[in-house]
Amino acid sequence: MSSEMEMLREELDVLQSVYCLPGECEVDISDGFHKLALKLRPNPVESGDRVTAPEICVTFYLSSEYPNIVPQISIMSAYLRRDQLSKLRQETSLLAQSLQGQAMLADLISFAQEYIDKTHSEFTDQSGAMLHGTFQIGSQSEIWTALLQLDHMRARNKYVKTIQNWSTELGLEGKLLFQGKLILILLQGPQSKIKDFIIRQKSVCVDVDSRGRSCKEKMMRVLCEQKSSSSSKRFTEFEVKDCETPRELQNVFTETGHEDLFHNFVQTLQGFHP
Questions:
Q1: Confidence band (pLDDT; 50, 70, 90) for 105?
Q2: Burial of 10 (C-beta count, 10 Å sphere; 0-12/13-18/19+)
Q3: pLDDT digits (tens, 9 = 90+) for 184-229
Q4: pLDDT by residue (tens digit) across 120-167?
Q5: Is residue 9 within a helix (H) or strand (E), and if so which, with residue range?
Q6: Cβ–Cβ under 8 Å, residues 136 and 51
Q7: What is the DSSP letter of 264?
């Protein structure tokens, strides 16, 4: 397998692990082309207990010569106007041209998501009603919670600094927790920003291997990604915390209203010894 195809396969694996809801990400291979189809939604906001967010279908057609030949991009949506679709397609294609020769799918998707979120906010008035009548929204952005597990950190100071910088850039709060051999990241924020964080974790060199060479975090696991419950507390910052005992780790989850995550996901992890 060529290095280009190996890179593409790695990109697709990352995206499929992040956009993992049914029908959210589909990959098809035929006649030497890879087709990647994603369903993106604007960061939803709450309307009582129900959230309705329109889908924007973004499809990339990648030839066997990708990334030296940039993908063809198709964008369809009943939510965006024709001029908005044209602008998004044009600007995404221009970004692809600027990234020619390197892995670009995560950057293109992140750009499209930011455009969709911005367009979405421009369509809302101060009361939170959609001006063009597509759907009604509330006034407070919906918050999601994700629990991630890292396998190890060889270059801890560099790795921790990178995670802190990403959380600041993406507007995410939460905790980076160490207890024994366990390394957990508890994140809160908009779902699209959490997905962006996960993509960065899996596609950017954040650590070093046993030979001291920069490497990507290929062994990170997404233990949970869900809407934040009303019983969970909102984090106000991103904190790094070393827990000396399993009890201290459990208390972090209990005090922040995430005890269910601890019981459902942390207790069963290999390396956790109460």
A1: very high
A2: middle
A3: 999 999 888 898 898 888 878 888 777 788 877 778 888 998 888 8
A4: 766 554 334 443 433 333 333 578 999 999 988 988 899 999 999 999
A5: helix 3-18
A6: no
A7: I
Six token digits for residue 152: 């190890």
Query: Average pLDDT, whole number, for the chain?
Result: 83
Rounded to whole angstroms, how far apart are CA atoms 250 and 66? 46
User: What burial letters (b/e) apply to 179-196, b meaning 16+ CB within 10 Å?
Assistant: beebbbbbbbbbbbbbbb
Distance CA 156, CA 176 (A): 12
* Alpha carbon distance 99, 107 (integer Å): 9
Strand ranges (E), the chain: 25-30, 33-40, 56-62, 72-76, 144-150, 173-179, 182-189, 205-208, 214-216, 221-227, 238-242
Q: For residue 18, give the nearest of 38, 41, 45 by alpha carbon.
A: 38
DSSP H helical segments within 53-155, as ranges?
A: 82-98, 105-122
Rounded Cα–Cα distance for residues 149 and 177 (Å): 10
What are the φ/ψ torsions at residue 226 (nearest 5 degrees)?
A: -155, 165
Dihedral of CA atoms 174, 176, 179, 182 in degrees, nearest 10, equals 110
To which residue do tokens 């499209």 refer?
Answer: 112
> Residue type at 21?
L
